[in-house]
């Protein structure tokens, strides 16, 4: 398997290497460096991997391992499916996208992504605007940034992703607990994460 599947980009000094279940049945994750930045990769036998549920989960699991690796690494995460023919093509991208990686790493250093969904209980009477205002008052002071996500169901009242300092995750979780108590029997609270901060990184690189 000579092709390279990319999970994200770290500072080149943050060498990463560990054995794990990786995308495409690979069993090792490691870095390929070019000057200041390094791509976190595993070997794969295709440049067009199929997004199975199993491999999508492996992609996310590897990112979590990297975020916790040797005390914690900041990684610019890539969406599923980024694969390159070999080292040369990958190093070309690392060279050409240096300014974008520099900005992204600065913006997300020491931060994680957390998700919050509120689902209306059946037959519940909920003032959605009031709920949105209440949630904003509780969580915006804790988060560095937040972005809205699609309300893909009629019962989905609220769906937002938050960029949060790692040290503030406990405070965020406590606020979720208070929210659950406040809206018991009216709203189902779905709290997810931590994730690599996909929603707060806008770096697009072309696979070759």
From TrEMBL:
What's the domain of life for this entry?
A: Archaea
- Pfam (any one): GvpL_GvpF
Q: Does the keyword Repressor apply?
A: no
The GO biological-process annotations, alphabetized, read as: gas vesicle organization
Tell me which UniProt keywords the record has, alphabetically: Gas vesicle
Q: Indicate where this protein resides in the cell.
A: Gas vesicle
Instruction: Note the coiled coil stretches, chain numbering.
Output: none
GO terms for cellular component: gas vesicle
InterPro entries documented for this protein: GvpL/GvpF (IPR009430)
Question: Which family is it part of?
Answer: Belongs to the gas vesicle GvpF/GvpL family.
The protein, known as: Gas vesicle synthesis GvpLGvpF
Q: Which organism is it from?
A: Natronococcus amylolyticus DSM 10524
